[in-house]
Write a structure and sequence with these properties.
heterodimer; A: 419 residues; alpha/beta; 5-stranded parallel sheet; 18 strands; B: 165 residues; Aconitase, domain 4
Chain lengths: 419, 165
C-alpha cells in the first residue's frame, strides 16, 4: 500500500514506515509560542522541574496577540516572556514585528519536511512550505522546550485536487471557505489535508498560506502543499535530497478525496456563528456592514492589500463604515509603504495600524458594538470572537471585504473589479 | 478510576472562545479563569459545576483556539470529566495533558436520557458512564493505554515527573 504525504513526512523523520493511528515520538525542528500561550508554557516548564531549555535555537517567542499591551495583566505576562527568553537565550519577536505565522516564515530558514509546532491553532499555516506544522497547547510546548520532542498520532489524510485558475475577484480564501463549508467544522478532524493537482501551481505562496491557515477550522491536524517552483523560492532546499516525499504514492490510501475547479468558484462568506456556515456572497448582498477588518494571519499579506487597495481606490470607504487594515508583519507593512499601497488605503479612508493580531480575537481594539455587523478577512466568526457576543461576523476574502467597505453593504467584489 | 458528578448538558461545536473569551488570556490565575468560564453564554455554569460536574456534549467539543486556559477554567470550576460525541484535536490533547478525562460516547442515540443535573458516575478506565438514579449505563470508547497512563498520573507533567523520577 502506498503512502500519503504525511506518512512520508513521518517516515523521513523516524526512519521507518508508519500507519495512520500509530502513536510516535518525533524530534521537533522549530517551536514557537506567543504572548497568549507562552507564559502558561513557562509555568508548565517550571512545573516539569526543567532548568534548561533543551535547545533554545529551536524555540521562538512572538508578541502579537495583545500587542502593544492593552492592560497591566498582559504587560506583566509579556515581561515574564521577555525575562524567560533572556535567561534562556531564546529569540523573541517584539511588539510590532508582526503575527507569529507571518514572522516565522519571513525570518527563519524553513526547510521542506521540517516538523514545526506552535502554541497556536493556526500554526498549520506553515504547511504551505511543504512541511509538517501543527498547533499544540502550552503543556505540549513545555514538553518540547524540555525534551525537544513530542508525541503524535499519525493522521489519516484527505486529498484535495485543484484544477484551473481563479476568475478575477475570486481568491484562495473563497476556496478554503468553500472546502470548509463542504466538509463541515469537524469533517476533517485529526486529518492531514493534502493539496494536489494542476491548479496548485497557480497559487502564490501567500494564497497557499491562507488555505493552510484555515484547515484547522474543519478540525484538521495539518495541511500540506506539494514542493514546486513556487515553494523553492521561499525555502532552503540546500540539504534536500528527498523530493519524492512531497508527492503521494499513486496507490496511497486517502480517507477522503475532494476535487475543485478553481475557475468555477465564486466569492463566498462564512456567516455567523460558525466557520462552516458558508454561503455565496450574492445570497447576502445588501446586508449593512458597520466594520470591515482586512488583516490577520489568514489574509494580511501583500497580495491581500493590493487587491483591497485596487477596489477601495475607486470610491473610498463608505461614510459611516470603519475599515481597519493591518499588515501581518512589519516587512509586509514596509513593502506596502514602498509600493504605494498604504497611501491608497489611507487615502481611501482606512485606519491602518501596526502589525498585530488586532481585532481578530477581540482582546484589544476594534471591538464591535451590540448589534453591529463586521466583514472580516480573519479565520473565526464564533459568537463573541471579536469581543462582543451581541455582534455578527462574516468571514470573507480581502476582495469581498474591500468591496463591502466601499458599498457599506456586503458586496460581490466582481462588480468593482475591472470595468 | 471512578468519577462522580452532576451532568451538565451542552450542545455541538462548543468552541474555546465561548468557554473562555480571549480577553481573559491576560491572566492564568485558575480562579480568575474559572470565575469567567462561559460568562457570555452560560453565566450559571460555574455555580452548577462547583460541586463536581461531568459535561455531556455533542460533536466537536473544544474547537478553535489552542488556549489551554479553556481546560484550566473548566477544571477549576469543578468539571471532573467530559463525555462528548467527538472532540476537536487540540482541546482533546490539552485536556489529557492537564489530567481531565475526555471520553467519546458511543451511544449517540441515547444521549437524550442523560439529563442535566442527574448524578452520574464515570468509570474512566472501562469507559462506562452510569446514571446513579436509574442505573442505566452508557459506553464510551476506552482511552488508549498511553493516554490512560497520563490521566492516571494526573496529567502530562505528573506523568513525566513519575517516568523520570
Amino acid at each position: 500500500m502506498g503512502e500519503t504525504i504525511v506518512q512520508k513526512l513521518f517516515r523521513t523523520r523516524l526512519g521507518r514506515a508508519v500507519k495512520p493511528g500509530e502513536i510516535v515520538v518525533a524530534d521537533i525542528d522549530l517551536a514557537y509560542a506567543h504572548d497568549g500561550t507562552g507564559p502558561l508554557a513557562i509555568d508548565a516548564f517550571r512545573e516539569l522541574g526543567s532548568n534548561t531549555v533543551h535547545d533554545p535555537s529551536k524555540i521562538r517567542f512572538v508578541i502579537d496577540h495583545a500587542s502593544p499591551s492593552p492592560n497591566e495583566g498582559a504587560s506583566n505576562l509579556q515581561l515574564k516572556l521577555r525575562a524567560f527568553a533572556r535567561e534562556n537565550s531564546i529569540r523573541i519577536y517584539e511588539v510590532g514585528e508582526g503575527i507569529c505565522h507571518q514572522v516565522i516564515p519571513e525570518n527563519e530558514s524553513l526547510k521542506p519536511g521540517m516538523f514545526i509546532v506552535g502554541a497556536d491553532s493556526h500554526t498549520v499555516t506553515l504547511g504551505a512550505f511543504s512541511l509538517f506544522a501543527t498547533g499544540v497547547g502550552s503543556t505540549d510546548f513545555a514538553e518540547v522546550m524540555t525534551s525537544g520532542k513530542l508525541w503524535f498520532k499519525v493522521p489519516e489524510a484527505m486529498k484535495v485536487t485543484l484544477n484551473g485558475c481563479f476568475q478575477p475577484g475570486v481568491m484562495s480564501k473563497d476556496l478554503i471557505l468553500r472546502i470548509i463549508g463542504d466538509v463541515g467544522a469537524d469533517g476533517a478532524t485529526y486529518m492531514s489535508i493534502e493539496f494536489q493537482g494542476e491548479g496548485v501551481k497557480t497559487l502564490s505562496m501567500a494564497s497557499r498560506m491562507t488555505v493552510c491557515n484555515m484547515v484547522v477550522e474543519m478540525g484538521a491536524k495539518n495541511g500540506v502543499f506539494p514542493l514546486d517552483e513556487v515553494t523553492v523560492k521561499h525555502v532552503d532546499t540546500s540539504s534536500l535530497n528527498y523530493k519524492s516525499v512531497f508527492k503521494p504514492d499513486e496507490d496511497a490510501e486517502y480517507a477522503m478525496s475532494l476535487s475543485y475547479r478553481l475557475d468555477e468558484l465564486e466569492p463566498v462568506v462564512a456567516a455567523p456563528h460558525n466557520v462552516d456556515n458558508v454561503k455565496p456572497v450574492k445570497e447576502l448582498e445588501g446586508l449593512e456592514v458597520n466594520q470591515v477588518f482586512i488583516g490577520s494571519c489568514t489574509n494580511g499579506r501583500e497580495e491581500d492589500f493590493e487587491i483591497a487597495a485596487k477596489i477601495l481606490s475607486r470610491k473610498g470607504v463608505k461614510k459611516g463604515v470603519r475599515c481597519i487594515a493591518i499588515p501581518a508583519s512589519r516587512r509586509v507593512f514596509l513593502n506596502l509603504l514602498r509600493n504605494g499601497i498604504i497611501d491608497k488605503l489611507v487615502s481611501a479612508g482606512c485606519t491602518v495600524t501596526h502589525s498585530t493580531c488586532g481585532p481578530c480575537l477581540g482582546v484589544h481594539f476594534g471591538i464591535l458594538g451590540s448589534g453591529e455587523v463586521a466583514v472580516s478577512t480573519s479565520n473565526r466568526n464564533f459568537k463573541g470572537r471579536m469581543g462582543n457576543p451581541e455582534s455578527s461576523i462574516y468571514l470573507a476574502s480581502p476582495a469581498t471585504a474591500a468591496a463591502s467597505a466601499v458599498e457599506g453593504v456586503i458586496t460581490d467584489p466582481r462588480k468593482l473589479i475591472g470595468g | 478510576m471512578k468519577i462522580r458528578g452532576r451532568i451538565i448538558r451542552l450542545g455541538d461545536n462548543v468552541d474555546t472562545d465561548v468557554i473562555i473569551p480571549a480577553r481573559y488570556l491576560v491572566t492564568h490565575d485558575a480562579e480568575v479563569l474559572a470565575k469567567h468560564v462561559f460568562e457570555d453564554y452560560y453565566p450559571e455554569f460555574r455555580a452548577k459545576a462547583s460541586g463536581g460536574a461531568i459535561i455531556v456534549a455533542g460533536e466537536n467539543f473544544g474547537l478553535g483556539s489552542s488556549r489551554e486556559h479553556a481546560v484550566i477554567a473548566l477544571k477549576h470550576s469543578g468539571v471532573k470529566a467530559i463525555v462528548a460525541k467527538s472532540f476537536a484535536r487540540i482541546f482533546y490533547r490539552n485536556s489529557i495533558n492537564l489530567g481531565l478525562p475526555a471520553l467519546v460516547i458511543r451511544e449517540a442515540e441515547g444521549l437524550d436520557r442523560l439529563k442535566d443535573g442527574d448524578e452520574a458516575e464515570l468509570d474512566v478506565a472501562n469507559g462506562v458512564l452510569t446514571i446513579i438514579k436509574t442505573g442505566e449505563k452508557f459506553s464510551c470508547d476506552k482511552m488508549p493505554e498511553f493516554i490512560m497512563k497520563i490521566i492516571e498520573a494526573g496529567g502530562l507533567i505528573n506523568y513525566f515527573l513519575k517516568e523520570n523520577g
